[in-house]
Structures are given as C-alpha cells and as structure tokens.
Amino acid sequence: MTDDICHLDATDLAARIRRRELSSREVVQAHLDRIAQANGAVNAIVTLDPEGALTAAAAADERTAHGEPLGPLHGLPIAHKDTHLTRGMRTTHGSPLFADHIPDQDELLVQRIAAAGAIRIGKTNVPEFAAGSHTFNPLFGATRNPYALDRSAGGSSGGAAAALAAGMQPLADGSDMGGSLRNPASFCNVVGLRPTPGRVPSLPAANAWETLAVAGPMGRTVADTALLLSVMAGPDDRCPIALDEPGSAFRSPGAADLSGLRIAWAPDLGGRVPVDPEVLAVLEPQLKVFEQLGGRIEPACPDLDGADEAFRTLRAQEFDLGLGPLLDAHPGALKPSVVWNIEEGRRLSGGDIARAHAARTRLHLAATGFFDAYDVLLAPVSQVVPFPVELEYPTEIAGQRLHTYLDWMRSAYLVSVLGGPALSVPAGFTPEGLPVGLQIIARPRAELTVLRVGAAYEAATRHGRRRPDLPPIPLTTPLAG
C-alpha cells in the first residue's frame, strides 16, 4: 500500500484526500515509510521531521473532518530544497558553515506552499551553495540517481528530483540559474520547470532585481508541476520584478492540440554545444511524436551570440555579491568552484557588467523575433547522460575537452539568458536504462504554452511512468531536524 500511495500523482492524491478516501496522516506516513526504505540508497532527504509532519497531518485531517476550506495542496507532504529558508528547521546550503543554521523565517515560496495546505517533512540535498549541477557536499555526501545508484542525480535541485523519482514526496520545489531544475529533472525522469523571471517571486533576496536565478516547481507529471506552480506563482509588491498574473491561472493547463504547432529543433543550439551521441539517439526519434501529433518541425535556433559571456558575467557578479563576504570571513571553507566563481566576479569591471546586461537586452529582442516565427523550441536539457556519481563534473563531451564545471551545462544555461520558461520532460531512456529529458522552450511569460505542449507529448509517450527499481534499504544513519 505504501508504494501505491507514494507513486500516485500529486493531483490524484490531493483529490483523494479531499474526498476523504485517504487521510493526510495515511499519506504522510506512507511517504515517511518510503523514505525509511529508500533514502539510505539515494540520499535525497537530508533533514527529516517525522513527528512534526504527522502532527501537522493530524491537524489537516481535523480541518477536513470539520469541512473547513482546503488549499490545493492540502495534506500533501513536501521536503524543501536545502537552500530555501525554513523557519525552525535547519537550512544548511550544503555547507559546514551553516550546519547548525536554523532560520527564524520561511522564505516566500515556503510560506505559499504551506498556506496551500502542504505538510513540511524535511529538506532535500543540494551541492554546496547550489553551485553546480551535481549534488554532493561535505555535510551529507552525494545524492544518487534512483534509476542507477552509481550515477549522478543532477543538481542543484538533485535531492528534490531524486526524492520525487523514488516516491519519497509527490511534489518538489527547487531553483534554477543555469539548469538546476531542468538538469536533475532530465537525469531523474521527472518534470522540472524553469519559469519566467518574476513568475515565482523570491523573498528575501540580496538582489531583488536579479533575473538569472529563479525558483520553480518539479513533479512526476506536467499536471503535478503545474499544480505546484499555481501555488508558488503570483504577484507580491515587495518583489520589484514579480508578474501580476495570479498563480491559479496555471492550475489545470490541460494538453494542447499540436495541430499546426510551429516547432524549432536545435539539437546543439546552433553548433554552440557538444552533445553526447547517447542523448541525441534518445531525443531524435521523439521528433516523430510531435509530427504525429500535428506539429511542423524545422531545424532552427535563436541568436545566442554573446549568451555565454553574459551568463558567466552575471553569474559571477551574483556569487561575489552573495558569497563574497563568506569567503572573506572563512577563507578555505568554501569549495574551489565556489571560490573560483567569486573571484571571477571580483575581476569584473562596471563596464563588464553593463555589457552583459546590454547583451541580454539584444538577446531578448532577438528571441522575441524568433518566437514570432515559432511557437516552441525543442533542445536537449543536458548534453550528457547521468554520469558516475564519483565524478565532480564531465570533462569531455563527444571528443571536446571541457575546462570548467559549468561547460557541460551550456545547453541549459544558454537558454536561461533568454528569459523565457523552459520545461524539462521525460523523453526516454538509453539502452543502459539512463533517463534523458527534452527541453521545451517558449517566449517569456508563456508558461501555459510549455505546460500544454509538454502535457500533450507526455500523454503520447508516457516515458515518465517508468519508475526506478529500488531496493528497500533502511536508513544507515538517523536524520536530525
């Protein structure tokens, strides 16, 4: 029964709780049991509060019994990404410097998820300070891919994606600067959405005007991902870039009719990124699915000249702003890749930053023109299949040498610069059984487009219905709150 509950869609679970076919306590207990069975192998959940979760579930059942108004996530358990502030529960950012850090406030997205009725059960693993797309850190170690325990789960929302895939939670939150929602979704055969900047307001924030990093939802289906987006999204006057559209607009997007849909296909983003042949061998046959559904596909790519430099410049600036003071106060306590990004930021001039913003402006205008001609752009999410968990990052793709830990993520981070929504949907498996995701990209503010197109593709293929075959391994060490 535990496995049955834990692999139900979140939308189905929420409906059953509302109809009193399942209690919140049953649902939470089933997921706690699943965590006890699988987390020792996967290492996705790094903080757990079973007593608090069960107490909250009992209170949720009381509200149901008394006929009180119920939120869209009523009774559903969720573990928050360990970079999202959670009042009274440790938020470590994957760093020994924050090993005992217990915030005195929830950040906005955590508040919104709780207000919608979700029940906090714990926190999910991240790379140190969410830097990189492979989830490992000195506090908790590496998160393993539920489909292949010797492989990476991606990152930086790797714990979130792995917990979803393994049935430890029905929904997951995350964040994405250069692919941190999309890459782990691709690696773990789940759905991840990078929204338009401002769609999900971020508070508190060191730089409330920042538009490269965004928060967003993950789920095992497009509908589940849209359900969580509907709760996370919506205006807030304290966030200067927040979009006005209410989140409820995304709650039940449905599947699009793809007849006549104008689709661009850019397998290497116009020759800008090397892609592992294994990835393309999975993705290229998927084009026939879109054609069978009525779409018209052409090879085309928006102008991305200057996107690489703009991304790296603005990323480095943010690292210096957010983490530079920690480097000064604790030299030697941050991992080399974080230090490198901070130092890159400190080498920037005002002119460098101004030119990066000017490049983003030009790229935005070029993308606007591109999406006048095409409804969506299809591309690989990740340039590689899930790589060995012991490897910090891939150093070569298709015979091309890579020089930094960012290079293998370019198929995701070049898209970040465009500023539109990008959805990662399960697209199939390699002969070894490794998941591969497809990226569906649209113009800014067109979340409904990527969700509806993704739902149509998902219904036609059902790749996301394949579950990992995990051994029931009990926890090796207790998790503290």
TrEMBL record:
SUPFAM superfamilies: Amidase signature (AS) enzymes. InterPro entries: Amidase, Amidase_CS, Amidase_dom, AS_sf. Residues 26-451 form the Amidase domain. Signal peptide: none annotated. Gene3D superfamilies: Amidase signature (AS) domain. GO terms for molecular function: catalytic activity. PROSITE patterns: AMIDASES. This is Amidase.
